[in-house]
Amino acid sequence: KSLQAALHDEFTAYVKGRRGVRLTGADDVLFSGAFWSGTQALELGLIDQIGVLNQVLVQKFGDDMRLVMLSQY
Fold this sequence. Notes:
52% helix; 0% strand; mainly alpha
């Protein structure tokens, strides 16, 4: 239990450090272990936008962006 609590605390600190003021929910909601739809996650500030990976990357990095998928097989 103590290891699980420590990992949860580290995860919480990491998310808060990365998302900062964009988080809009209370800690007991955001870090409850619940699952949210994309729209709910957007409203809570857990994500920046909803979209298709390639389109979002092109929007962020420009038309010259290339996504290379590496396969283990």
